[in-house]
Amino acid sequence: MDLIAESEALFQDESVVLAALEVEKVGHGADATGAQLLKSLGAESYRAGPKPRVLCFSVKRSLSDREFAAAISLCRRDPRQPGAPLELRKTYPLKCLHDLRLHCAAAPGSGSFSEQQAPGAVAQLLRSGSGHDVDGGGGGGGARPLPSVEVWLAHHHSAPDHRGAYFFPGQRQAMLFMSLAVQLLRRQDELLPTLSGVSLERLDAWWVANKEAAAAALAPFAARVITPGTLQACGRRGELGVLVSAKEEADLEELLGLYALGLGEPEEFAARLQDEHAALEAANVYGLLESGPLVEGVLTQLRRTQGVLDDLHESLKVFDLKLRHMRDDIAAIEASNNSLERQSRNNAALLAALDRLLADIDIDAATARRLESGPLDAQHLPAAAAAAWALHDKRRRLAAGGGPGAVSPLVAGMRAVKDARARLDGLAQRFVSRAAQHVATAIGNAAGEAMTEGAAAGDRGARLSPPDRGRLREAVARCQPLVAALAALDPSALARLQMHYAQNVNSLLRRELRACSSELRRAVQAEAAGGEGAGLGLRERSVLNAARRAARPSGGSIGSASDISEDPGSASASPRAAPRTRGGPGAGAPAAARLAAYLTGASPGLPLHAAWQQLLGSFLPFLLEEADYAAAAFFMRKGDDPRAATQQQQQQQVQQQQVQQRRRPPPPHGGGELTPAGHEAVGALLGSLDPDFAVLVDLTSKSNQVMAVPMLALCRAWLARLRGRPTAAPLATALSACERRLAGHWAAFVAAQTAAVDAFDARSKIGLQAGIKNVHLLPPINQFVSMAQELEGLMADAAAEVEAGRGAAAARRRGSGEREERRQEGEDGGGGGGDGGGGAEEEAAADAAAAGAAHSVRSDVDAAYSSWAGRLFACLERQAALDAKYADRLRLENYGHYADGLAPLTESAPALRESVQQADALREGALAQYIQDQLEYGKMWKLLEFGQRLEKLLQVVTPAEVAFQKDCSASDARALMRSAMEGADKKLEAAAARVRKHLGATALGDAVWQRLKEDLLARYERLEQLLELCYPNTPLRPSPEELRELFKLAGSG
């Protein structure tokens, strides 16, 4: 009640306070735009600071009627003055309440509410401002989330006038606030606000359950306002029956007090006042007369004091003048002393700087002798490198603008400094010339030894695998400190060393790559000479080569007519032939197994695509490693620090005292951009290698064109791996040339095959008179099926090789990462962590791009499939049109062979799916026509035609009227059955013999005979039903059961 009374003092009009609640305001809501901005700027403390506020509900008499109007007011205390009174900030009509949102969250900051209060009633809670619930819920010992109510006040729904979030001491205080607002709005018949976090039904239920406790916590007049007629409202000084404000009540009491004086008669009261006024004036005059002497004494003392003060003022003016002169003298003395002290300090600093400059502008004699003529062998090389770095530091310090620690431009212009710098430059030139000659000699000697070792290697394994660069890299590692010093002293000397190293290593690489490519070419030629994996030919071969070609799984061109099959048994088994083994003998074997067999002599040679895989898989990583090593060893990348590289190498040498590292691993990633000199050196290092890669590519120009497909896939995969690596630009150029050649060879092969299919004519090989009687499988279709199986096998092998390369690369990355971790654990302090993780991600992305690039060959092959399929079907129809008698049999065999042979490949080659489905449909049509021809040949087709005629007649007439139709009498039916089925056993035996003669003892012949049997029996049984329906007294002889037995006898014969 104290808070209500204090709040009521703020309202000087007719308003009466119903309730006052202490809350904490958060300036910005969590979802406000300003809050998000403050949070992004780090102003979380702004939001976290709560501000104590008081929310008041008040009512006043309405001007329009006898009802009242409710309002909500926002009050606060001055935070700078403890115990300050409340201040009224804003007042809004309660009908402007637009939105109420209840949240339960932790209070931002420390807050002013306590959660450790004893349970109590709502009135005591609101009087003390504690944090307890309305209906006496207990308080816990620990912090718990405080409810917050977000209040929106707006005269118009689209532009809120006020929006704020308030934290209440407890959940029930928040419920009291929201319930009271709803009850007041209902009392005024106003629109209720939008509720969020709590439903209206829950607020009503809470108000009904806690009405008595809530009424005790509110002002006395609140009960009359909220529930008129149910509770009697009591005023502060008695019963109030009407709505009266505090001001009106005070005015009324004052007016009543005036009437309670007992004035009596007005004349008597006026006379009394006149007497009292005269008495007061007499008393005042008497008081003034008595105080006269005292006033005179006071005035005398004031005049004496004024004279003393005037004398004191004159003395102070004289003293101030003397002090001013004294201050001027002291300031002059201090200025003179400061000037002398500054001059002394400057002289001392100048002498010290000159002493240091004279001591630092030249190097000591021992260092100069070591640079001039000191030995550069392995024992003295660290000392020579240290002397070179000392010379570099000295030159940098004496250069104007040399960076931190360098002399100023004014000092650099002194004659002594210029002379010293000229002496140091001359010494640096002499040392650079001598050191560069030493490094070039060491590199040349190591390269010569490596070339001698390579020439001495005579076995296949040594020629097919990259050589060891241990000695050459050891020589470069020994010279690494000297190279780093040269890079700092003279970048042009470093560029010459880069080019010298590139030229020496390039001669080694060309010699080794030429030996490998020559050996692989001999292996491919040996494989072709042995008849194994020779690939698909492109031109027509003579009949003399037919036997040898038939022994190979991939012999013959698509358009070759020399392989025309005259044996009915050569047809593919139907309905589905077993898929061919892809790739020929050994084509599915792993590349490592093929290479091992060749190295041990178990295999005479290697397939062309396996040789290409060996060349790329072994030498491309080796060449890329050589380029990366050269770029790292000779500082070819932008931003390389020679001094940091020297310190890192010294640490590695300390770690490798007991373990000799034969081959240094490549850098963990592709590295940065190369310098212009680095680009030139890498181009010289990897230049002139194109002819050695093109040796195997040229083998696909006139033969082995099919091998261009897996070779093209591997080439594109490696191009994708090399893309984005600066050191691999020359290799990417060489592989791009190989890719263009392979694509040209494949395009020429596709064009040649297309022309061969278009020009194919079977009569040119079997004679013009024989027709196609003895032709079974057309060579274009037979060879296309073989070639498609071969191509899919080769492409699967290429994809497997690419995936194997990805697995091997991942294993290498894991191994190198483990080695890097072990190396870092061995370093002092655990520092120097590399960026191998980033390199692993880049290599994984390159492997994924390589797989996608290898898969891009599929589009070229699918385009060739689509082009060939239509031409093959046109060629078949063209050959079938030469002889209508055997056309259906020719279509049946060739379409069946095409569909059965290529059906297993439709999953890996979607371009074949449509042509296989078309071949299946055409085969079914040819099969139906072929069966009809056989039945007509055995004179049984007329009986089946008679059954079809009966079917059509029954659609327009009744069964009893069928016998009266033309050529449908009972005698006609009996004569037709007698002529068609007479000697049925011999006719069936002749039909079986004819099928075996045309198709041979193959699965296709068995399938055709089974189909003929099923169709004939089905129609025969239907004919029996029709005869029973139309000719009840005319039985069918032989019966269907007897005909089935005759089929068994004919099939067994």
TrEMBL record:
The keyword Amino-acid biosynthesis does not apply. Residues 647-660 have a biased composition (Low complexity). It holds the Pfam family Sec3_C-term. Residues 815-826 have a biased composition (Basic and acidic residues). Transmembrane segments: none annotated. Residues 549-589, 640-677, 807-847 are annotated as: Disordered. Residues 267-392 form the Exocyst complex component Sec3 coiled-coil domain. Keywords: Coiled coil, Exocytosis, Transport. Residues 323-360 form a coiled coil. One of its GO terms (biological process) is Golgi to plasma membrane transport. GO terms for cellular component: exocyst; plasma membrane. GO terms for molecular function: phosphatidylinositol-4,5-bisphosphate binding. Residues 856-1033 form the Exocyst complex component Sec3 C-terminal domain. Residues 829-839 have a biased composition (Gly residues). Belongs to the SEC3 family. This is Uncharacterized protein.
